[in-house]
UniProtKB/TrEMBL annotation:
Keywords: Amino-acid biosynthesis, Cytoplasm, NADP, Oxidoreductase, Proline biosynthesis. This is Pyrroline-5-carboxylate reductase. The gene is proC. Pathway: Amino-acid biosynthesis; L-proline biosynthesis; L-proline from L-glutamate 5-semialdehyde: step 1/1. Catalyzes the reduction of 1-pyrroline-5-carboxylate (PCA) to L-proline. It comes from Corynebacterium anserum. It is found in: Cytoplasm.
């Protein structure tokens, strides 16, 4: 039976465990560690899993140990579990979701030969709609990477990438949900400005985001399906209302803002890794 340890029961830790347990993994084989007893109590009540304040306990006997703490805490956590990982009778695959933290820096804090897989997930995995990219380290063979891919697939779409692309992936999908939340928030405010009651503007904006996302996903999954450009062209009749709106978005620099924002995100990811 595969034993999964999760260190850090925050946003991503919870999104991960909810996907894993929702996909049929017995919650008794999942153990989460976090310093906050109240948070552990919440997770235990909601998912029925094993919890601990001791990260070594989460690492003990783990086949896969997910590191879901903030990037600056990763070295502390790795140092605290290294000995346990070395003593484990079974092989423990270390899976880090921390933005910016390189596989090489993780490997140097672990017993020689420990397989490491780096994953860049995002929070929609909380609702089974995550987008994750993963890359294996020097000691992770195809089998290790595929096993992590299989676990992560319980949380949504998973793709394999080269590690050099992970900072760019962070800018697209890792931080991407926040961009869509912000766009939706702006649409709600603009709807209110046009005289709609806020609850109505919110309901319509969210339903529109959902519908548009589903159309794009359908286009992506079908051979010859419509891509985002085609979908937008189809709803933009010449001289019509949508064209009037998208022209203003272009004039006001929507695309330029995204280029700059995502470059800033990627650079920040690199910076986090360096520090
Ligand atoms: N959020 C995202 O959208 C996103 C997307 C992709 C990747 N990531 C990556 O995912 C990681 C986690 O992010 P998050 O948003 O889930 O952060 P978070 O909500 O702050 O969760 C981190 C959790 O780790 C706990 N923690 C701190 N020190 C610990 C230790 N020594 N042992 C065990 N647990 C410890 C924290 O507890 P306290 O709060 O009590 O300190 C907190 O509950 C980060 O490295 C981030 O780069 C996040």
């Amino acid at each position: 039976m595969t034993r999964i340890g999760i260190i850090g029961g925050g946003n991503i830790g919870e999104a991960l465990l909810s996907g894993i347990i929702g996909n049929g993994t017995d919650s008794k084989n999942v153990i989460v560690s976090d310093p906050a007893a109240a948070r552990l109590e919440q997770l235990k009540e909601k998912y029925g899993l094993i919890t601990t304040e001791d990260s070594q306990e989460a690492a003990d006997g783990a086949d896969f140990l997910f590191i879901c703490v903030k990037p600056d805490i990763v070295p502390v956590v790795l140092e605290s579990v290294a000995e346990t990982v070395e003593k484990n009778d079974n092989e423990t695959v270390i899976v880090s979701v921390a933005a910016g933290v390189t596989i090489n820096s993780i490997e140097t804090l672990l017993p020689a030969g420990t397989p490491v897989v780096r994953v860049m997930p995002n929070t929609p995995m909380l609702v089974g709609k995550g987008a994750s990219a993963l890359a294996g380290g020097r000691f992770a063979d195809e089998g290790h990477v595929e096993a992590v891919q299989e676990i992560m697939s319980a949380t949504g779409t998973v793709v394999k990438v080269k590690e050099k692309d992970i900072d760019a992936v962070t800018a697209v999908s890792g931080s991407g949900p926040a961009y869509f939340f912000m766009v939706t928030e702006a649409m709600i405010d603009a709807g209110v400005n046009l005289g709609l009651p806020r609850p109505l503007a919110q309901e319509l904006a969210i339903a529109t985001a959902d519908g548009a996302a589903q159309m794009m996903a359908q286009g992506q999954s079908q051979e010859g399906g419509d891509d985002p450009v085609t979908l937008r062209t189809k709803v933009s009749s010449p001289g019509g209302t949508t064209s009037a709106a998208t022209r203003v978005l272009d004039e006001e620099g929507l695309r330029r803002a995204f280029y700059k924002a995502m470059e800033a995100c990627k650079n920040r990811s690199v910076e986090l890794g360096e520090s």
